[in-house]
């Protein structure tokens, strides 16, 4: 095998292990370790555009049966890392337990991207504009990663440590996500704002999970993406709103608290001012909608 840096994907030494043990053994040794490759919808673009150098080796995770699980397990939904966005959309288990994740997956690219792109790839890519992040964060679930040393669980809320950085070690791959389902009476809402209706990269997107009974907020979790280096939970706002009645005064204060508690980025997609204003409106809208009777 040539040691010159590959210039095209055809020159990359790509392994297709069929068991998790084989994949982890390849990842364990620096001489055989390669870039994990799932659907390639981020990597191919990044390699071709030069954002990332073409790697010497890639290790496909697409043929590992353990990474394709979708199952309900007690109060959790367990999703393998190689589950595609389309499989998430179509799964009755995910529709019942994680409705916001289903709605988010439905907004990712078009059908072609949804058919190739995976939840593990989206999460490991660690883009602040990754549309699945808010729906995963509001579950307070776990990302399970594996290496030859064994498995460990990382809370979703601690997985992204900075812009495009994760808590994974170089020899680890994501194997699955363990995500608590919505409890009785809880609902979830997903909202994405982009420059157009379809195939848009988000300016701001967010998810909430909550329960409002007799006009009073009993539980509320909210996460917002595309406004900072990583997706963020608005924990102070979550604490403040629980126990509050849903009325105009509280909603006005909520909107103001959200906008003043964030420090949005400005980039090619949006200004910081717009993101600050619209995030307040979005979270207000979440609570208003949760207060409405379910469809
Ligand atoms: C035209 C187009 C439109 C898009 N639209 C959207 C959109 O609207 N919203 C959105 O959020 N995204 C969008 N994307 C981005 C992309 O589709 C998603 O991020 C996708 O989920 C990535 O998954 P993948 O399987 O293709 O990952 P890959 O490209 O295979 O990998 C991405 C990263 O994850 C790593 N990786 C993959 N699997 C694992 C694993 N199991 N363990 C550890 N590391 C792993 C890879 O090494 C790489 O760093 C779009 C992409 C394109 C090309």
Question: How would you describe this structure in keywords?
Answer:
alpha+beta, four-stranded antiparallel beta sheet, Uridine Diphospho-n-acetylenolpyruvylglucosamine Reductase, domain 3, Enolase-like, domain 1, binds flavin-adenine dinucleotide, 295 residues, Uridine Diphospho-n-acetylenolpyruvylglucosamine Reductase, domain 2, five-stranded antiparallel beta sheet
Task: Tell me the series of helices and strands, N- to C-terminal.
Answer: EHEHEEEHHHHHHEEHEEEEEEEHHH
| Count, helices | 12
CATH architecture of the largest domain: 2-Layer Sandwich
How many distinct domains? 3
Unreliable sequence segments: none
What would the principal axes of the Cα set say about the shape? globular
Oligomer: single chain
Distance between the termini: 60 Å
Bound molecules: flavin-adenine dinucleotide
Query: If you consult CATH, what is the topology of the largest domain?
Result: Uridine Diphospho-n-acetylenolpyruvylglucosamine Reductase, domain 3
Computed structural class: alpha+beta
The total beta strand count reads 14
Rg: 20 Å
In order across it, which strands form the biggest sheet? 4-5-10-6-7
**Overall CATH class of the largest domain:** Alpha Beta
Largest sheet: 5 strands, antiparallel
Mean pLDDT: 95
Helix content: 25-40%
- Report the sheet-strand fraction: 15-25%
């Amino acid at each position: 095998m040539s040691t010159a840096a590959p210039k095209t994907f055809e020159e990359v030494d790509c392994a297709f292990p069929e068991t998790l043990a084989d994949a982890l053994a390849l990842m364990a040794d620096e001489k055989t370790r390669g870039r994990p490759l799932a659907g390639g919808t981020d990597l191919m673009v990044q390699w071709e555009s030069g954002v990332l150098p073409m790697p010497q080796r890639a290790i496909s995770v697409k043929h590992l049966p353990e990474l394709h699980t979708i199952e309900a397990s007690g109060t959790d939904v367990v999703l393998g890392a190689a589950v595609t966005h389309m499989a998430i959309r179509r799964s009755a288990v995910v529709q019942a337990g994680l409705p916001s994740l289903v709605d988010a997956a439905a907004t990712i690219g078009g059908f072609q991207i949804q058919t190739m792109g995976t939840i593990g790839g989206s999460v490991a890519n660690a883009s602040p504009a990754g549309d699945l992040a808010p729906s995963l964060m509001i579950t307070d679930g776990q990302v399970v990663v594996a290496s030859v040393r064994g498995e460990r669980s990382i809370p979703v809320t601690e997985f992204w440590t900075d812009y495009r950085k994760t808590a994974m070690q170089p020899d680890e791959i994501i194997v699955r996500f363990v995500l608590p389902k919505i409890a009785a009476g809880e609902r979830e809402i997903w909202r994405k704002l982009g420059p157009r209706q379809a195939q848009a990269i988000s300016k701001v997107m967010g998810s909430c999970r909550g329960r409002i009974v007799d006009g009073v907020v009993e539980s509320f979790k909210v996460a917002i993406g595309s406004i900072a280096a990583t997706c963020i939970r608005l924990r102070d706002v979550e604490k403040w709103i629980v126990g509050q009645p849903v009325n105009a005064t509280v909603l006005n204060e909520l909107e103001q608290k959200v906008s003043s508690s964030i420090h949005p980025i400005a980039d090619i997609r949006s200004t910081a001012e717009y993101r600050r204003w619209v995030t307040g409106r979005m979270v207000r809208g979440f609570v208003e909608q949760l207060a409405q009777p379910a469809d």
